[in-house]
């Protein structure tokens, strides 16, 4: 039943999801001079991200360390509403040496929802609002990306994956005391990507080129 195969489906989706948020900038104006700052983005579990942030942040460096963004997979669940007939097949034709025609196929893909969490940490309210405002207008409530799964090694094979923004949760984190100097603002954005997973690719049996059929008239026997 089980065989070794790997289509890098989750890896491709994680890369595509991160690409949506890896070009976000904020602007700060100081004494009439506007400075444009790119917000760093990393893939990391939230606990590890916060731990690393706490190591870097102190009262003298907090302004230079923040803002920061991170994201990670929060969960994977089966989506029965998008399930298709499991016996459906997708085919690929290959022409080899001596014009020999062979076929490869795979069974219908299986729908799953992958939950992502994007977390934003900023020093002040305006930085956080700038980042969130650059994200929200594109999700109504979903944004569709296109990925080439290349399961059958076919560059023309494409799949559209809707990414739904489920919730935006603002929060304030204080270190040591409830003062402005120790406050870190946090925004948690929760997403769901409606993707598919693909089974192994199989080779079809030999093509039937000749068929012999014998007909009998049973009324004359």
Describe the fold and architecture:
The protein has one domain: 2-Layer Sandwich (STM4215-like). It is of the alpha+beta class and 221 residues long. The chain is elongated, with a radius of gyration of 26 Å. The protein is 16% helix and 42% strand. The chain is built from four helices and eleven strands.
How would you summarize what this structure contains?
With 221 residues, the chain is an alpha+beta fold. It is 16% helix and 42% strand. The radius of gyration is 26 Å and the shape is elongated.
Residue windows where pLDDT falls under 50 for at least 5 positions: none
Round the Cα radius of gyration to an integer and report it.
26 Å
How many structural domains does the protein architecture include? 1
**Text of the CATH class:** Alpha Beta
- Mean pLDDT across all residues, rounded? 84
Proportion of residues in β-strands: 35-45%
**Helix share, percent:** 10-25%
Helix and strand succession? HEEEHHEEEEHEEEE
Structural class: alpha+beta
CATH architecture: 2-Layer Sandwich
According to CATH, the homologous superfamily is: Myoviridae tail sheath stabiliser
Q: Given the C-alpha coordinates, what overall shape results?
A: elongated
Topology:
Blueprint: H1 9-19, E1 25-30, E2 33-38, E3 41-43, H2 46-56, H3 62-65, E4 68-78, E5 89-95, E6 101-107, E7 110-122, H4 125-133, E8 142-147, E9 159-174, E10 183-197, E11 202-203
Parallel strand pairs: 3-4
Antiparallel strand pairs: 1-2, 4-7, 5-6, 6-11, 7-10, 8-9, 9-10
